[in-house]
């Protein structure tokens, strides 16, 4: 194959993947805002949005228009340059983190292999942990630049919470990486194909997903994901009903909506990571067998399988996003001492014990 032609395929594929991920991340906030209102109304026997568009579908669009045309006020007492910079510091890392999450397998186009992830990194785990931690700086800058004691207290609550639960999240992922022996997210998704094998015996009714190999790691990661995204029952940074909002107290209009967008971008990234590490990633159990029953030629079967795997990944992401919503309207908010106790005295010790147990299991299996 001509080298220049192959480079063009790689370039256009990169643009297509980048555009696809950006479109998804930009649309997740309005869609999830509508979904939260509808699900909340069903769970609490309320009406919910039903006036703007059919089933209230255009309510989020109306909200977006309202934010765009709201007067862009900058309070006189804030540290202006940092005040304007902070929303961007929150939303950019949220968008960057999803770059290494594989939403499909490696496909072959005209002899060129194209991985279905924006950026191919063999150190994807390290990239995720480093970039996701940068969001803390946006919160610190927002709370300090607001020059408001309540914003500062909200920022301190939020940074302490995020740093505490980042440790528990990292420990849970250390165990899963030890088990799969890789920090490449595409490889981790690939090895979760097939059926679960325990003590040399294959269990045909269970897929080879990380949640069955590392249930403790999955539990710790999911709890830490709720805390990292500031979602109930861990939404103390934004507990406006009893602790005077949080780090974005002085923000309004589009600047506030950027914090809102960053939260939902973190949610979809967390959902993608749960799917990748613990739910088989883009693996679609049984899809290949069903496609073979259709009797299509090899090329059609290949692309149909790719489509099924991409749909499988996004289905897992959507289901976990819905789980975020259901938990929000089910569990009450923790007290701050309970939140810190859970992080430092429960999740961190369990994460350390899980790493030791994983190491012992690997050593015994190697004998």
Mind explaining what this structure looks like?
The protein is mainly α and about 375 residues long. Helix 9 (about 215-230) runs antiparallel to helix 10. Strand 1 (about 105-110) and strand 2 form a beta hairpin. It is built from 13 helices and four strands. The strands form two sheets. A two-stranded antiparallel sheet has the order 1-2. It has a two-stranded antiparallel sheet with strand order 3-4. It has one domain (about 70-105, about 120-365).
Helix amount? 55-70%
Please compute the radius of gyration using only Cα atoms. 22 Å
Overall shape: globular
**Overall number of strands:** 4
Q: How far apart are the first and last residues' alpha carbons, in Å?
A: 46 Å
Number of domains: 1
Can you tell me the residue ranges where pLDDT is under 50 for at least 5 consecutive residues? Answer: none
* Percentage beta strand: 5-15%
Strand order of the largest sheet: 1-2
Order of helices and strands: HHHEEHHHHEEHHHHHH
Question: How many alpha or pi helices?
Answer: 13
Secondary structure category: mainly alpha
The largest sheet is:
2 strands, antiparallel
Mean pLDDT: 86
